[in-house]
Amino acid sequence: PAERPAVYLDGLNESQREAVEATEGPVLVLAGAGTGKTRVLTTRLAHILLQGRARPGEILAVTFTNKAAREMQERVGHMLGTPVEGWWVGTFHALAARILRRHAEAVGLKPNFTILDTDDQVRLIKQILAARDIDTKRFPPRTFSAVIQRWKDRSLGPEKVSQGEAVEALDGTAIDVYKDYQSELLRQNAADFGDLLMLCVDLFQSQPDILKSYQRRFRYVLVDEYQDTNVAQYLWLRLLAQGHQNICCVGDDDQSIYSWRGAEVGNILRFEKDFPGAKVVRLERNYRSTPHILGAASGLIANNEGRLGKTLWTDLNEGEKVRVHGVWDSTEEARWIVDDMEARQMRGESLATMAVLVRTSAQTREFEERLITLGIAYQVIGGLRFYERQEIRDAVAYLRVIAQPDDDLAFQRIANVPKRGLGDASMQTVHMHARARGISLSLAIRELTTTDELKSRPKKLFTDLLNEFDRWRVEAHDHSPAELMDIVLDESGYTEMWKLDKSIDAPGRIENLKELVVGLSAFDTLTSFLEHISLVMENEQNKGTDKVTLMTLHGAKGLEFDTVYLPGWEEGLFPHQRALDETGTNGLEEERRLAYVGLTRARKCATVTFAANRRIYGQWQSSLPSRFVDELPAGHIERAGELGLSRGGFAEDQAVFGKVSGKASEGYGAGWKRAQNRKPQDDLVFAPARVSSGGLEVGQRIFHQKFGYGSIQGLDGDKLDIKFEKAGMKKVMVSFVEKV
Ligand code: ATP
Ligand code: MG
């Protein structure tokens, strides 16, 4: 095999080639976005196989997602000219599960053990809490699963958690629950996600023979997105690679964005310690993005401290500057972006080359609606489409039952969500009665309340529930659908349920619920909204292959698109308020890395947008452009049509679905009405460029759409400090201020 011509190496630059060919000994490739790290790994794999250094079964390659694993498999197969079989390429979890199945007995499991999902975990924890008589109001079950998960990320079984931590965590209750939880898992022959790695590490540590066999087997270990490994994953890797020490990790400290899931960028620094003599390769040439995109991204990330630091350059043609565009509100943002996509499509660009990368998944709603209106195919990657998300389905189920008391599917979905104490047995009774009489569940309950088939407690609970729905039906007459949703989410305790929930995804769900209310405000009847939903859901059948991609910035790691849209660059949204609330700068720096990841996904065109107003429930909130916008070096950006603010605001034409009626706005805050009645945009003084020349100066009296009259106290780039006559001191964007 040695004399085989190595064409697959031809395209690589010198440093890349060095990283590919240094097959023996530890190698760390530390390099910025788009420098070919993943390509190096793939080529290295092919190289090892083609040189006959190892058989496929002797190589362990770790990717960040299953999708990335499949891609790697395809590319290597392509380079080899034949599909590769029997190799170990996958995510940490998939690989660890595979090993664990073979040695399940050694850790007390059977080979056919079940892997629990989050819901199962929570259910199990609830049982344990009940048995231990722990107050779930104070410490909701998901709080426990979150704490336990963090311990597992650090490979700490119950016996390894330090005394200090054990006493601290949830008032000392967490550790006991953790112990029970682990023994319960064993009893049920089950493992959760965190166990896969932790138990595998335990296995290696307690059974040196087994470890040795794997160390011998895996002659080569390769790891992508190394900056985002957590401690358990790191230990697992280190144990496996200690044999041949042929380990190659590629990563970028500037793209470490998962510390909230336990990732430790410090693993990069540890590498050189744990693998002395490691070869460190730096790649500096970026093959993905144009100079302006790269310049903007590099300028932005330079604001972070404590970086390992690296240079990046590209040979590509100048290309377009990064477009920065301010809009009035999120509806206009979605409209502007989707229109831009459509225009590109008309010019012959494929939809698959375009992506919208959002900070929070709730942001996808506006884009989905606009895309559906224009009939542009889309996919939400790494998450569900907005109306398919659990909390949205739940909330909509409430509305369905209000609109249609006999909607059994909807009723069943939320009868006991949040928990009302209705047991399976009483539900069973209701079902049987409904079936026997051929009537709906609600009707069945009404009938049963007059008999003694139900015990008195469930009877009361059911009656209360039906009464609540009756009350909401009355409310529905006096309120817009949006207001009604707001009331129902509040009074049913549904939002509260998620507020008490301390799991990682709970805040996102609450954001989605708020976004749902915002979406509802475009409808004046419940029926028109519910109809809209069924249309949206049907739209799913749209199976064309050419689709735009919507996804979160977190999910976009490692990917690339010709055209990338980055909406919502506003203080509080991005950087997210949660990060801003953290003490220290860690949270903020991680947000900035996320922005860097976002920009560097773009090959040819990147667009950043921010809205001056966002609706939270029915209330307008004015927002300031993200500090990240200011941090983009001026030479690489172009303020795209600053006056892109559309005319007319909330006129009929803007309603994405159905028509907007005045009713939806009644009862909402003044901000809402103001915005609705606001003057055409042309009246606004705009464009930060004109700040200096436009005669805005301290002392100038101004008018702001939301806060009214005030006077300028200070100028700060494109923001102004203004003392408003009614609203007091506020920082606002110059573009939304009128001179008076
Ligand atoms: P990220 O940090 O975003 O994961 P990366 O460092 O893994 O990026 P790759 O995805 O491997 O970068 O490469 C980025 C793009 O550059 C890909 O389209 C890849 O095919 C291309 N590329 C990498 N190296 C070369 C090369 N030597 N010649 C031509 N194109 C290359
Ligand atoms: Mg990569």
Description:
The chain has 740 residues and is of the alpha/beta class. 45% of the residues lie in helices and 14% in strands. The protein has 30 helices and 21 strands. The strands form 4 sheets. Strands 9, 10, 11, 12, 13, 14, 15 and 16 form an 8-stranded mixed β-sheet that branches. Strands 3-2-6-7-1-8 form a 6-stranded parallel β-sheet, sandwiched between helices. Strand 18 and strand 19 form a beta hairpin. Helix 6 crosses helix 9 and helix 10 crosses helix 11. The longest helix is centred in the middle third of the chain and has 23 residues. The protein is globular, with a radius of gyration of 28 Å. It binds adenosine-5'-triphosphate (ATP) and magnesium ion. Adenosine-5'-triphosphate binds next to helix 3.
Q: What's the helix and strand layout?
A:
Layout: H1 7-10, H2 14-21, E1 27-31, H3 37-50, E2 59-62, H4 66-80, E3 88-90, H5 92-102, E4 114-115, H6 118-132, H7 141-153, H8 163-168, H9 173-187, E5 190-191, H10 193-206, H11 208-217, E6 220-223, H12 231-241, E7 247-251, H13 266-274, E8 279-283, H14 291-301, E9 322-329, H15 330-346, E10 354-358, H16 364-374, E11 378-380, H17 390-403, H18 408-414, H19 424-437, H20 441-448, H21 456-478, H22 481-491, H23 494-500, H24 506-520, H25 526-538, E12 548-552, E13 561-566, H26 577-581, H27 586-599, E14 602-616, E15 619-622, H28 627-631, E16 637-639, H29 670-677, H30 690-693, E17 701-704, E18 708-716, E19 719-724, E20 728-733, E21 737-739
Parallel strand pairs: 1-7, 1-8, 2-3, 2-6, 4-5, 6-7, 9-14, 9-16, 10-12, 10-13, 11-12, 13-14
Antiparallel strand pairs: 14-15, 17-18, 17-21, 18-19, 19-20
Helix pairs in contact: 2-3, 3-4, 5-10, 6-7, 6-9, 10-11, 10-12, 14-27, 15-16, 17-18, 17-24, 19-20, 20-21, 22-24
Residues 37-38, 558 line the site of magnesium ion.
